[in-house]
Specification:
heterodimer, A: 472 residues, alpha+beta, five-stranded mixed beta sheet, rod-shaped, B: alpha/beta, 42% helix
Chain lengths: 472, 125
């Protein structure tokens, strides 16, 4: 029982269905086999009755004369008939033979004590007297009263064979008791064979059906897997092609500036002021190129899991301040405000990576609010975490983009954003960095043109008091 | 105006490239009109009617192709020569330039000398 239970627990739903189905089919097959066997048994019994009737009619029919059935048989005639019947039925498997007169009296019996017995209400005898062979399987109890020496539970067949001397009605009938042991054994074997054959046949059919269905469904599944894989591959290919396009565009602009200004510096004789301005522009082009290369390297490091992160207590305000240093030359339309609660607010993080994350979020906030506006950086404690939010009043994020905005190469596609530079890598890198520091990033937007808020949630640095009532 | 109209409209959204174009064309003695978006470019072209337009393909609001088509469809601005600044020079881009009615194109990265030559070539004498 235990292995069966273990098997059941460890098997899939399909497997369980198949097993139960197979079991039911075998049982059903056996039942059908049994029903079929019953029909076979009845036919076999009828055939046996017919065979005995033919033998009895053939061997014993000529033995009697019409006057033998007029009254009681004289003793010498009785003895003569007895000898003949005993001799002629010895090889037929009969247990007993009675000879009935048409009025329902036994005139001869191999069991001599039965002579003179009258039939109470014997349908088979009545039937036989109309000229038909009749048979019945006697219940063991009744057979016992008739047959001396027959075992109580043994099946016995009673066959009435009409005795005709011309005319439509029989003058009497032989009643033959046939021992059914051999017939029963033979039929039983046929029954069992039939039931087993049908049961096995149906089980095999079902098994074949299950195999065919499973094969077909596996094939379908394989095909749909193939299709899904193909679609995924195509999507990756499409994004990579797009990525190469974006990267080459992003590379070309600073490269054009680098080549252009260096050519100008080399070929033109101009005042020092121009020279300084062009050198500064060349430098800024080189910085942009450097930033792009840095991003690509970050992605490749993240992909290969080669990025190493430290863990330390990082004051949030300090990290934000460091991030804001990159925005010294902010476009005049943008204002940046900061606010902190729970001083000193400290997170457990890698300081450089946290600064990178904040720089990226603030840079996005500025970049995606082309009409300017307020960029707010808020830090506050929340239980055992620190929440740092960067909120802008810019283009916002359409609801359908929320799920994919952190995907690699993904860029929100709308008219105004299409011309804002971006590789689709910034937020991907940002999320990876946050998650690698044991944190998570959340995004919130009221929708297009209504600004957006990105919140970085990091573990808070616990001080002594904080650790004491960590549950509070 | 008249015989020696040296005004050139530059439609480019990247400040780095605006600075580069400005420095590059200086020897040609042109007056550079600057537009940062596609719609701004169309508005300035209509208002000021410069004889030459340097048009970046990747402009905000309206891209360079749309601006080009718009200017070539308008009788008031049809006369302006248009040189596209593209990132790629694929056959498709060249076809697209011809389709949009552009007179020429420069591929990034372009050199200041190339740009200067294009401006002097395309500006009416």
């Amino acid at each position: 029982m235990i292995p069966l239970r273990r098997w059941w627990a460890g098997t899939s739903l399909v497997g369980r269905f198949t097993a139960v189905g197979l079991l039911l089919t075998v049982v059903l097959g056996l039942l059908v086999g049994k029903a079929t066997a019953s029909a076979i048994r009845i036919t076999a019994m009828d055939e046996e009755a017919q065979r005995i009737a033919t033998i009895v009619a053939g061997r014993l029919g000529g033995l009697l004369r019409p006057e033998d059935l007029q009254g009681s048989l004289p003793p010498d005639r009785y003895a003569e008939i007895d000898r003949s019947i005993q001799g002629r039925t010895a090889d037929t498997g009969t247990l007993a033979v009675n000879l009935w007169r048409a009025d329902g009296t036994v005139v001869y019996s191999t069991n001599h004590a039965s002579v003179g017995r009258r039939a109470a209400n014997d349908d088979e005898l009545a039937d036989a007297l109309t000229g038909r062979t009749a048979r019945s399987i006697e219940p063991a109890g009744r057979a016992d009263t008739v047959l001396r020496g027959a075992a109580g539970q043994d099946p016995v067949m009673e066959i009435y064979v009409p005795l005709m001397f011309g005319g439509s009605r029989a003058a009497g009938a032989f009643e033959v008791y046939r021992d059914l042991h051999d017939v029963d054994a033979r039929i039983g074997a046929v029954e069992r064979a039939t039931a087993i054959a049908l049961g096995t046949g149906m089980a095999v059919l079902l098994a074949l059906l299950v195999l065919v269905v499973r094969g077909a469904s596996r094939q379908l599944r394989t095909q749909s897997d193939d299709l899904a894989r193909l679609a995924a591959q195509q999507e990756i290919d499409r994004r990579q092609t797009e990525f190469v396009g974006i990267v080459s565009h992003e590379l070309r602009t600073p490269l054009t500036a680098l080549l252009g200004f260096s050519e100008l510096l080399l070929t033109r004789d101009v005042p020092d002021a121009d020279r300084r301005e062009w050198t500064a522009l060349l430098h800024s082009g080189a910085q942009r190129l450097g930033h792009l290369v840095e991003q690509l390297l970050d992605v490749s490091r993240l992909d290969e899991g080669r990025l190493e992160l430290g863990r330390a207590r990082v004051p949030v305000a300090g990290a934000v301040q460091e991030a804001l240093e990159s925005f010294a030359a902010l476009p005049p339309a943008h204002r940046i405000e900061q606010s902190y609660r729970g001083e000193p607010l400290e997170a457990v993080a890698d300081r450089d990576k946290l600064v990178q994350v904040l720089t990226n979020l603030i840079s996005n906030a500025v970049k995606y609010s082309p009409d300017g506006g307020l960029v707010r950086v808020d830090g506050r404690p929340n239980g055992s975490t620190v929440r740092i939010s960067v909120t802008d009043e810019g283009l916002g994020i359409p609801p359908e983009e929320m799920a994919t905005i952190f995907d690699r190469f993904h860029r929100v596609d709308d008219e105004r954003r299409r011309t804002i530079e971006g590789t689709g890598l910034g937020l991907y890198i940002t999320r990876q960095l946050v998650e690698m520091q044991g944190g998570r990033i959340e995004v919130y937007s009221l929708g297009p043109r209504r600004g957006s808020t990105f919140t970085v949630v990091l573990p808070a640095a616990a001080d002594e008091a904080g650790e004491d009532d960590a549950d509070g | 105006m008249g015989e020696s109209d040296r005004r050139v409209l530059l439609a480019e959204d990247d400040p780095l490239l605006v600075a580069l174009v400005r420095a590059s064309v200086r020897p040609a003695g042109v007056e550079l009109l600057e537009a940062g978006t596609g719609t701004e470019a169309v508005a300035i072209a209509r208002a000021r009617r410069p004889p030459l337009v340097l048009l970046d393909v990747g402009l905000p609001e309206m891209d360079g192709w749309e601006v080009c088509q718009e200017l070539k469809a308008d009788p008031a601005t049809r006369g302006a020569r248009i040189v596209m600044l593209t990132a790629r020079a694929t056959a498709a881009d060249r076809e697209r330039a011809a389709e949009a009615g552009a007179d020429g194109y420069l591929t990034k990265p372009f050199s200041p000398a190339e740009l200067l030559a294009a401006v002097t070539t395309w500006l009416p004498a």
